[in-house]
Design brief:
Elements (H helix, E strand, L loop, with lengths): L2 E2 L7 E5 L12 E2 L19 E5 L26 H10 L5 H22 L9 E5 L5 E3 H16 L3 E6 L6 E2 L8 E9 L10 E8 L18 H10 L8 E7 L3 E6 L5 E6 L4 E6 L10 E3 L10 H10 L10 E2 L5 H11 L2 E4 L10 E2 H14 L3 E3 L16 E2 L1 E4 L1 H11 L1
Parallel strand pairs: 7-9, 15-16, 15-17
Antiparallel strand pairs: 1-3, 2-4, 5-6, 7-8, 9-10, 10-11, 11-12, 12-13, 13-14, 17-21, 18-20, 19-21
Helix pairs in contact: 1-2, 2-3, 5-8
């Protein structure tokens, strides 16, 4: 059998083992016994070692330009979340305590992902029959996911205060076990999607330690003494103070995305061995994108400036096409798509909700931190989201977030 070998710059003799497991390059093809100017080779087969001789081409023949290909890591070079965090610790980007907190959060996310995948089987769909502090009906998994987050953060020994969407007031971890980091989170974002098996997520942010705030928050917030009030103030920090933030996407894949102030990295859960594996390094959001994510059902409730902007993006552009609308009712899903594809997400104020629907502390601030680390922008229409200092734990804010060019266009209409 004779094969043709692509252009080579020198004469080379290669000995192949002949094992059937070897994948030969697709450019090798059978040309019978004829000679070919592009190269000559003779191979023995039938289980014996194969000897192929490649002959250099004549200088007069043009050589095809070599394609630049992205280097693909082998299975032995896979990096998981834990090893990545330890490398950041060695480089001095984070300390050992923050590593412990982030590992605990990732563990909670793995447990939530498992419950979501089996929710219909183990009867975890539907309402819990309770209402949270915002007056929202709680799903069964809202309550369970909140407990999973709280338990993982309590037991790691490095968390001082926990503030959650599902808790009335911040919860201080018992003094004998706690550290000092302040962790804010939304355990299940988009919980209305659970019963229909659509995209959901978890959001978290981590603030610096405060040694003066190791107290119990089991009391009614109206009865808090001065020390407890001080601790609530310590939780209500602007997003610019965040040490780390991230989210976990529960969809066709489970993706844990994180920033510790030096870029954005995403880790995909490998179900074969239960580890988050690095799949997206130093994510950069496209400068522009032709996708918008707004709840258009509220169009008539928006102010005129925003309506004018919306009419603009729905008209065909220079390429003859308007923006595409994508809305799934889950902030994590919207932001994850935007990080990779570009575009703009908006949850504006309207006649019924003067401050929008999303919470500043544990939804808007962490997601704005992620997007800005990826090169995007986030605003409430007047100022940068990360510059807003919340007065209350569950304070709401309008938000417009996405590619920098898209936010700039929006601000031109809102001015």
């Amino acid at each position: 059998m004779t094969i043709s070998i692509p252009a080579l710059s020198c004469r080379n003799i290669a000995l192949f083992s002949g094992y059937p497991s070897i994948n030969y390059p697709s450019t090798f093809h059978n040309i019978g016994n004829s000679d070919d100017r592009r190269g000559r080779g003779s191979c023995s087969s039938f289980g014996r070692p194969t000897r192929c001789e490649a002959v250099a081409l004549e200088d007069s023949l043009p050589t095809a330009p070599q394609a630049v290909t992205k280097r693909v890591k082998s299975q032995w070079e896979i990096e998981n979340l834990t090893s990545w965090l330890l490398k950041q610790e060695v480089r001095g980007n984070i300390d050992a305590e923050l590593t412990s907190v982030l590992c605990s959060i990732s563990l909670a996310c793995k447990q939530i992902a498992s419950l979501l995948q089996r929710s219909s089987i183990i009867n975890l769909t539907g309402a819990q029959g309770t209402v949270n502090i915002q007056g929202e009906d709680q799903k069964k998994l809202d309550v369970i996911s909140n407990e999973l987050f709280c338990n993982c953060l309590r037991t790691n020994g490095r968390t001082g205060i926990i503030a959650s969407e599902e808790e009335d007031v911040p919860v201080a971890v018992e003094e004998t076990y706690s550290g000092n980091y302040i962790v804010v989170f939304d355990p299940i974002d988009g919980s209305a999607n659970i019963d229909t098996s659509l995209t959901t997520g978890s959001i978290f942010g981590i603030y610096g330690p405060d040694e003066n705030c190791l107290v119990d928050y089991d009391d009614d917030d109206s009865m808090l003494d001065e020390a407890k009030q001080k601790c609530i103030v310590s939780v209500c920090q602007p997003g610019s103070n965040l040490l780390a933030a991230g989210y976990c996407l529960y969809s066709s894949s489970v993706v844990f995305t994180i920033s510790i102030g030096d870029g954005v990295y995403a880790f995909t859960l490998d179900p074969s061995y239960g580890e988050f594996v690095l799949t997206h390094e130093n994510i950069k959001i496209p400068k522009s994108g032709k996708i918008y994510s707004f709840n258009e059902g509220n169009f008539d409730l928006w102010d005129e400036k925003l309506q004018n902007y919306f009419n603009h993006i729905r008209k065909p552009g220079a390429n003859g096409k308007p923006y595409s609308g994508r809305y799934i009712g889950c902030l994590v899903g919207e932001i994850h798509r935007m990080l990779l594809c570009g575009g703009i997400y908006g949850n504006p104020q309207n006649e019924n909700n003067k401050n929008g629907n999303l919470r500043l502390l544990y939804e808007c601030a962490p997601m704005s931190y992620i997007v800005e680390q990826a090169g995007g922008k986030a605003t409430d229409g007047n100022q940068r989201i990360l510059d807003i200092k919340p007065d209350k734990i569950h304070q709401r804010t309008p938000i417009f977030i996405g590619s920098p060019d898209e936010i700039q266009i929006l601000q031109g209409y809102m001015a």
